[in-house]
């Protein structure tokens, strides 16, 4: 079973580079997974599950969302986008983060410049870390579209904390994987084409 699971992971993520330290690999994969609980919570809320802070009909939650965009579609889009961005952390320990994959026309087989991966990853890590730290004081407080303050309580608060709490680690995990990427790629000779 574990062998089959690893085969699926390698097929989806690609192989990790051999000289990536285990702690960097764990950090990169963890950075891509800590976003998943919040995505699932958000999708459930968008599909109408009574788990959020809003009272009444879900249509009250639309805020500035245009009427032609369904709430469920918006929450799924936002969640897929969040997870896709989080998945990019795996590139810091995978071969596709060092050599452009063959299926990308015009760039296939070229070496990925270190700054092309490290600068966005480092900036993302800083923004995520600062953003989560500054949002902690009002973690359970929300505003309804009409401006009314609502706080989560009881099991809804517990579920929200379990779902969104892991996001606190996204920035530091991404920073750890980014530092390892820079250290590993520093002064390395050119890699062979993929």
Please write out the topology.
Layout lengths: L1 H12 L8 H12 L2 H11 L24 H17 L26 H22 L5 E3 L5 E3 L2 H11 L5 H16 L9
Antiparallel strand pairs: 1-2
Q: What's the count of strands?
A: 2
Secondary-structure class:
mainly alpha
Major sheet characteristics: 2 strands, antiparallel
How much helicity do the residues have? 40-55%
* Element order: H for helix, E for strand: HHHHHEEHH
User: Beta-strand percentage?
Assistant: under 5%
First-last Cα distance: 29 Å
- Let me know the average pLDDT: 82
Q: Which regions have little confidence, pLDDT < 50, spanning 5+ residues?
A: 190-194
Our count of domains comes out at 1
Radius of gyration: 20 Å
Number of helices: 7
Shape: elongated
For the largest sheet, list the strands in their spatial order. Answer: 1-2
Transmembrane segments: 72-94, 114-137, 157-183
Keywords: Membrane, Transmembrane, Transmembrane helix
């Amino acid at each position: 079973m574990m062998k089959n699971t690893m085969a699926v992971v390698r097929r989806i993520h690609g192989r990790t580079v051999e000289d990536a330290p285990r702690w960097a690999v764990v950090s990169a994969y963890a950075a891509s997974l800590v976003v998943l609980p919040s995505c699932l919570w958000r999708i459930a809320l968008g599909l109408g599950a009574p788990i959020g802070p809003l009272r009444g009909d879900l249509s009250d939650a639309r805020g500035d969302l245009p009427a032609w965009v369904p709430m469920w579609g918006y929450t799924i889009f936002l969640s897929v986008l969040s997870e896709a961005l989080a998945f990019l952390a795996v590139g810091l320990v995978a071969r596709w983060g060092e050599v452009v994959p063959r299926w990308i026309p015009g760039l296939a087989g070229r070496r990925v410049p270190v700054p092309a991966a490290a600068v966005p990853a480092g900036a993302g890590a800083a923004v995520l870390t600062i953003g989560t730290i500054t949002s902690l004081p009002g973690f359970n407080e929300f505003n309804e579209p009409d401006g009314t303050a609502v706080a989560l309580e009881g099991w809804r608060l517990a579920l929200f904390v379990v779902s969104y709490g892991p996001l606190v680690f996204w920035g530091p995990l991404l920073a750890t994987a980014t530092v390892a990427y820079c250290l590993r790629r520093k002064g390395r000779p050119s890699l062979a084409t993929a």
